[in-house]
């Protein structure tokens, strides 16, 4: 499945499944606000995938990077 990545100012990578938890539209990174934004209905998520605004009701699925290399 797809992975969305963001590297913060300290160099830490944050990985989430980019499928919005509302109706599975693919979120995009909003550089100005530092959020994952859904283009379909406006849900917003933190860089770690925590739900900030509705209509989504759940966080994005977090992906552990160590799971990707196994």
In short:
With 70 residues, the chain is mainly beta. The protein has a single domain (4-64), classed as Rieske Iron-sulfur Protein (3-layer Sandwich). Helix content is 6%, strand content 27%.
Describe the structure.
By secondary structure, this protein is mainly beta. The chain has one domain (4-64): Rieske Iron-sulfur Protein (3-layer Sandwich), CATH 2.102.10.10. It is 6% helix and 27% strand. The chain contains one helix and six strands, in the order ββββββα. The strands form two sheets. Strands 3-4-5-6 form a four-stranded antiparallel beta sheet, with no helix packed on it. It has a two-stranded antiparallel sheet with strand order 1-2. The two termini are 15 Å apart. The mean pLDDT is 93.
What's the structural blueprint in terms of helices and strands?
Blueprint lengths: L3 E4 L5 E4 L11 E3 L4 E3 L6 E2 L5 E3 L11 H4 L2
Antiparallel strand pairs: 1-2, 3-4, 4-5, 5-6
């Amino acid at each position: 499945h797809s992975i969305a990545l963001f590297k913060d100012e300290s160099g830490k990578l944050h990985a989430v499944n980019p499928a919005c938890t509302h109706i599975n539209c693919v979120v995009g990174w909003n550089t100005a606000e530092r959020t994952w934004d859904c283009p379909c209905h406006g849900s917003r998520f933190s860089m770690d995938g925590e739900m900030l605004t509705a209509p989504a009701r759940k966080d994005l699925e977090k992906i552990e990077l160590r799971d990707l290399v196994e």
